[in-house]
Amino acid sequence: MGLRIHFVVDPHVFYGxxxxxxxxxxxxxxxxxxxxxxxxxxxxxxREFWELCNKCNLMRPKRxxxxxxxxxxxxxMDHHCPWINNCVGxxxxxxxxxxxxxxxxxxxxxxxxxxxxxxxFLPLKKRNLDLFLVRHELAIMRLAAFMxxxxxxxxxxxxxxxxxxxITDTTSxxxxxxxxxxxxxxxxxxxxxxxxxxxxxxxxxxxxxxxQRQPLRVPYHFANHV
Length: 226
Ligand SMILES: [Zn+2]
Ligand SMILES: [Zn+2]
Fold this sequence. Notes:
Elements: H1 2-9, H2 11-30, E1 50-52, E2 59-61, E3 65-67, E4 72-74, E5 79-81, E6 86-88, H3 93-125, H4 137-167, H5 172-177, H6 190-198
Antiparallel strand pairs: 1-2, 3-4, 5-6
Helix pairs in contact: 2-3, 3-4
């Protein structure tokens, strides 16, 4: 029991999660979300699943969307994220999900530490001030707790809608345009939709931001249309 608690409060675990979170953040913002080339090679027999973008006049697979902020079309675009200053599309959606997941985890960690400080260190303060490394440490903890709660509410909402979107295989843009009630398409199992987003069926790899994503072959006839 003592060992287990020690593991949970070990700062190295916190630093480890922070590194995963930072790598996911940097890679999500610099990875190409799935920009289409000028002259895309349309696989034979899939022409009917492609369409012309009326903004940039280029052919694109259905489910692509033209991002007005980036000025080009993105394959299976989910949304444009101002926090990473990039589109979230087919090629970086998995990194965006990891970013949400690790931010959520870090927030819980920070909150746990803040509350430990309240309940463990606050009574000590009255007895021995030398226990505190920095002045105003409790004020910093209160600030951290406030920011933690704010982040927890925001990120939980975002992460929840993202997970529902993946399970139902619907992008945020498709959800907003309410297209999908009219379209009947085979409902895929959640393992399949997650595997497609992460580019692998190995569930442990879904949590690792240090790798290259290899797209699973998804026939376009599964795709729906905005
Ligand atoms: Zn376009
Ligand atoms: Zn964009």
